[in-house]
Amino acid sequence: MNRHTEEILIVDDKPANLKLLTRVLTGQGYHVRAASSGKHALESVHLSPPHLILLDIKMPGMNGFEVCESLKADPLTGDIPVIFISALDDVQEKVHGFQAGGVDYITKPFQVEEVLARVETHLGLRRLQKQLQDANVRMARELQLAALTQANFIPRNLPQVEGWDFAATLIPARETSGDFYDVFHIQGGAMGILVADVVDKGVAAALFMVLAWSLIREGAEKYPADPDKIYDLVNDKLLSIMEDLVFVSAFLGVLDPHSGSLTYVNAGHPPPWLCRATGGLEPLALTGIPLGIDHGTVWHRGETHLDAGDVLVLYTDGIIEACDQVDQLYGMDRLKQCIQQYAPSGVRGIQQAILTDVMQFLEGNPPQDDVALMVIKRNPEVA
Predict the structure, then answer these.
(1) Taking the domain 153-378, which CATH number applies?
(2) Which fold has domain 7-144?
């Protein structure tokens, strides 16, 4: 915005002051309107809000303080900068002006150069404020778009598999999340199980999450039974696109729903816990470092088996690293206790119990990190 489009309203009951200020400001390229009373000033502002107001204080009827307070009380006019320009030079009057909402105070008789400098300063600040507001609006729209885009990649309804129950949830700490999960069919009747965490925040993490998710899906089509080869492909492509700027911790498993066998690779991710029907807990430990760190990384396969009644709990570090008000961590031990206590429940009951326990630990404070949680249970066979 330049001076040719900025409009200034001068409010003064003295025609000589109106004439002088109008001549000076129009000479600098500003559009100028004048009002000779507080009432006329408010009518003019509501008809067409100016970019700045020069406001006298001592006027018949409504004084300048009252005019300013009325403007500031109205959301439509409250952000218009008001500069008081008055013969009242007492400190208390100046303080009153700022308390009423003025941004500056010029005493009469004034110097033209001072008036112009202060006008330009506050119009410049208003321009910057408007630019910031516009940027915030654009950012909010971009965040909304990123969140909607990301939501389309997170499955709302997990596959129905005979003999198995699945439940999963994602709780972003911000508008978008770097955590994600997936359960998907693989060639040959197997199921892909994925829980991952992009080590970054905000929109960048959300966009990288979409990239990582799509690459893992692509790899699963090419190597349906080999999660380690899937990671080789994903790792090389991530590094070719992003070098080593962002990396991903991820657990990927290939589950045979008929036999219950699970082949997996764990790339730097918190270990899922396998709770046996007998009550024992087994971690599915690391088999390599996170994706996107180094070419030539080797991920070793892990193998296990889920029997009837067994429960597998997968999660991101937003759970175990949740901090209470005195910076104590929720921790792995508390998670293990919660899993063992509620393992006999259904998958949704287990999921809800863990989330409730975390929220109680946080004492009502929102999570500071994204949380993804998946629970899988092999149901007992019906005789």
Answers:
(1) 3.60.40.10
(2) Rossmann fold (3.40.50)
What is the structure's pLDDT at 185? 95
What is the 8-class DSSP label of residue 242? H
231: three-class secondary structure by DSSP = helix
pLDDT for residue 383 is more than 50: no
| C-beta neighbour count of 62 within 10 angstroms | 16
| Strand arrangement of the beta sheet that strand 261-267 belongs to | 179-185, 191-198, 248-255, 261-267, 302-305
Which pLDDT does position 365 carry in this prediction?
82
User: In sequence order, what DSSP letters do the residues of 137-172 get, joined into one string?
Assistant: HHHHHHHHHHHHHHHTTS-SSPPP-TTEEEEEEEE-
Taking residue 123's Cβ as centre, other Cβ atoms within 10 Å add up to 18
Tokens for 233?
């492909």
> What average pLDDT score do residues 166-183 get?
88
Residue 367 CA: distances (Å) to CA of 359, 361, 371: 8, 10, 8
Residue type at 201 in one-letter notation:
K
Domain ranges of the chain: 7-144, 153-378
**Phi, psi torsion values for 38, nearest 5 degrees:** -65, -40
pLDDT, the chain, mean: 91
Q: Which two structure tokens, joined as six digits, stand for 277? A: 């029907």
